Every structure is written in structure tokens, then in C-alpha cells.
Amino acid sequence: MGFLDAIGLGGGTKEQKLKTKLLQKYGPPENRQKAIEQLRELGTDEALRVLLLRFTLRVEPSITDHDEKNRVMEIVNDFGERSVPALKEFLAERDEVAFAITALSELVDEAAVVSAACDVLDKEANTHVRDPEKRVQLMRHLRDHKHERIVPTCLPFVGDLADDVKLAALEAITAQGADERGRETIINALIAAHGESNNRVRETAATALEQTGLLVTGFRPKVEAALPVGFVVDREGRVKKK
């Protein structure tokens, strides 16, 4: 296969020709749907990687879009363990990760899917992106799991420029319970959000302290000043709801 074929610009393989039909945003949906089934029938590793590209396209109506993506997920699941390397590559290289991380979750155990998500996030930590949706989706997925990697992976994103990223990071950390590694970062996020009049982050950080039961020792005056209405610091130094 030549270079142009490899990047999808040449006449190429059957898989690459079907890729063109698969990614047609407009025109009869039957063309895309037929391409999906033809790729399934080919059953090659390249066909699988091309199929995953359907996750990158959004079409109208939304019900058709969702049905086609669900069909790809069914095929990926049928391919079984063969799908895992392609899914991990997709997570690392593409931005539209919601369906891919869900598909991976159906094929590997909790530790493996958490590690895959954390590996991707660790590489993105302390970098700037124009569209933060990938980070948000991965951390929202991590919110539903318990694992020792989640807190250290999500901590750098509490300081992200995008509020949605900050919120997703705080929520994922909160879901891990009273993990001391997150204490000062959550407290500092609360104080910073108060200074910036950022009520969304302020409320989420206060909720994180309340739900985890982490002590605010050493920060009590600043925390009391930063807490939204409805929260207090008790005698022991824990944030509570009134």
C-alpha cells in the first residue's frame, strides 16, 4: 500500500474506498450504513480502524447518527479482543472519544479501561487545546470508576483554563472519596474560584470538600470566606451543608 493510500488520499484498498462512503455527511444514510456492513464483512484490522472513524462524524437527524454509531459499537464488540489495540489508538489520536471509551469498557476490565483513559489524559496534562471536550468526556467516564490512578491524573486539570474541564476533574476526584492527594488542590480551587467570582467552580469545589469530608486545616479562614451560601466549616474543620 502506497503512502497516499495509507493516509486515505489514494485509490487504495477496499477499506479506504469504503472509508469515503462511511464519512459522507450528506446524501442517503443507506450509503454509510452499507459501508458499515461491508467493513464488517471484510473483518480486517484496517477495516476495524476505518469503522471507528464513524465516531468522528455527526449527522442529522440525531437518531440516525446514534443508530449508526451503536451499530459500529456492536461490530467492535463482536470483534472482541482484536478491537482493543484499535480503540486505544483511537483514544490517543482522536477527539471524539465518548463512544470509543464506552466500547472499550465492554471489552476490558475496570483497571484496563481506567489505565487507558489515564494514559491519554497524562499526556495532555499541562497542555493547551482549543477544544477541551476530549478531556471532559474521559474524566466524566473516570467519575464512574474507583482506581488509585484517577486522583493524580485529574489533579492537573483542576487548573485548566476551561471551566468544563475543571468541573469534570473535580467531580472525578470527588468520586474517589477522601483521598488526601486531592485536598489542597480542591481547597485552592475553591479559594481561586471565589476570587474570580466563578460560581460554578466554587460550588463544585465546596461540594467536593463536603462529600469527601477532607479537612480544611491550615486554610480555614480562607475557606470560610470562599464557601458559597449554604456551606459551613464545622468544629473539626470539615465542610458541611447547613
Task: Report on the architecture of this protein.
- Helix content is 61%, strand content 2%.
- The protein has 14 helices and two strands, in the order ααααααααααααααββ.
- It has helices spanning 3-6, 14-22, 29-42, 45-52, 62-79, 83-93, 98-105, 110-124, 133-142, 150-154, 163-174, 183-195, 199-212, 220-226, and strands at 231-233, 239-241.
- Strands 1-2 form a two-stranded antiparallel ribbon.
- The radius of gyration is 22 Å and the shape is elongated.
- The model is unreliable at 1-7 (pLDDT under 50).
How is this fold's topology laid out?
Layout: H1 3-6, H2 14-22, H3 29-42, H4 45-52, H5 62-79, H6 83-93, H7 98-105, H8 110-124, H9 133-142, H10 150-154, H11 163-174, H12 183-195, H13 199-212, H14 220-226, E1 231-233, E2 239-241
Helix pairs in contact: 2-3, 2-4, 3-4, 3-5, 4-6, 6-7, 8-9, 9-11, 11-13, 12-13, 12-14
